[in-house]
């Protein structure tokens, strides 16, 4: 699969970004780092959303941990009583499952 995405990306318009190790590629009107574009292409072609899916998105340093704790509390509000809430013994990042990308967004050289 990765070979297929790499071949497709190689045909797209390309420009050098400010960082000399990574190239930008234009796809559907946006510029992407190649690693991010690979992941986006994979998601577009293979992700099958479910009605119960929740996407929690925030920029770094904008309250992501608090947002995860709030989301977990809302989703599990009927599961446990307050004395047994997992947030009392775990950090929100451990309570919320997340999908690890198949592709590393930043390629190591």
From TrEMBL:
It is an enzyme of class 2 (transferase). Signal peptide: none annotated. It comes from the Eukaryota. The keyword Calcium does not apply. One of its GO terms (molecular function) is sulfotransferase activity. Belongs to the sulfotransferase 1 family. This is Sulfotransferase. It comes from Solanum verrucosum. The lineage of its organism: Eukaryota, Viridiplantae, Streptophyta, Embryophyta, Tracheophyta.
